[in-house]
Write a structure and sequence with these properties.
single chain; 270 residues; alpha+beta; 4-stranded antiparallel beta sheet; 31% helix; DNA repair; Znf_FPG/IleRS
Length: 270
């Protein structure tokens, strides 16, 4: 599933490829992928140009040369973008295509049809209606502390709740807690100010590392938990040597927390 780092990479890709090009037409293969009806989308977007982007968590917003027309993209389970010329084959699963007057196209890739696209007129209104909290890269320590401490639950499901902080998925939360040396089942009320500071620093560390490496997990630093998660899913016989904490060598534990498979070091995350 595209997480915050992947969507940030998509945002950068769109900005470097598809801005300031008048849109000739919009082609939609499956209207169920739209959050606004096709006529509204077509009338709102044709003749306009994309002028910039903004991302909050896993949500990508694309501005147009009409301030009241904003395109919202959610990439679902397997969404992606593809910018290509009309002279080449249409990318597989490009179920929504924006055709530009210069002969290039922007395809919205929807392999499993969980992806969504539509028009909104206010980002703030949309975020409030969807109960989406501050972005993981933008949230301040004081905001994060206040949002966590008002909840009476375990820290992992609270961090995964998009109303707490936007953009943290399952593996990211495991990595954040590992880097901060906080157990995923710690009650939120038990976290000290120092632990909250470590948590905030770890959110930025994990997200910025993932973006820097273009979400290619095998390229992450050796001290990251993601390597244990990857090897645990491997079909090969030599995975046993890769199931230990990269810092202390303790065997990594795996259990269900908040209904999600969770990895942690039982020695360092007490």
């Amino acid at each position: 599933m595209p997480e915050l780092p992947e969507v940030e990479i998509y945002r950068q890709y769109l900005e470097t490829s598809a801005l300031h090009q008048p849109i000739e037409s919009v082609e939609v293969e499956d209207h169920k992928l739209l959050t606004t009806d096709f006529t509204t989308l077509h009338e709102g977007i044709v003749g306009r140009s994309f002028t910039g982007t903004h991302r909050v968590g896993k949500n990508l917003f694309v501005f147009t040369d009409d301030p009241s027309v904003i395109l919202h993209m959610h990439f679902g389970m397997t969404g992606d973008l593809a910018y290509y010329h009309s002279s080449v084959d249409r990318p597989r699963h490009a179920r929504i295509v924006f055709h530009f007057r210069n002969g290039f196209n922007l395809g919205f890739i929807c392999p499993r049809k969980f992806e969504r696209i539509g028009l909104i007129d206010s980002i703030d209104t949309h975020l409030k209606r969807k109960k989406i909290g501050p972005d993981g890269l933008a949230i301040t320590l004081s905001e994060l502390t206040a949002r966590i401490r008002r909840r009476k639950s375990l820290i992992k499901p609270v961090l995964m709740d998009q109303s707490t902080v936007a953009g943290l998925g399952n593996w990211i939360v495991d990595e954040v807690l590992f880097q901060a040396c906080i157990h995923p089942e710690r009650p939120t009320a038990s976290l000290s100010d120092d632990e909250m500071a470590r948590l905030h620093d770890s959110v930025r560390l994990v997200l910025e590392t993932a973006i820097r490496h273009e979400a290619t997990y095998r390229d992450f630093p050796v001290g990251f938990l993601i390597h244990v998660r990857q090897w645990d899913d491997s079909p090969y016989d030599d995975v046993e040597a890769h199931k230990f904490c990269p810092r202390c060598g303790t065997r990594i534990d795996k259990k269900e927390v908040g209904g999600r498979t969770t990895y942690f070091c039982p020695k360092e995350q007490i």
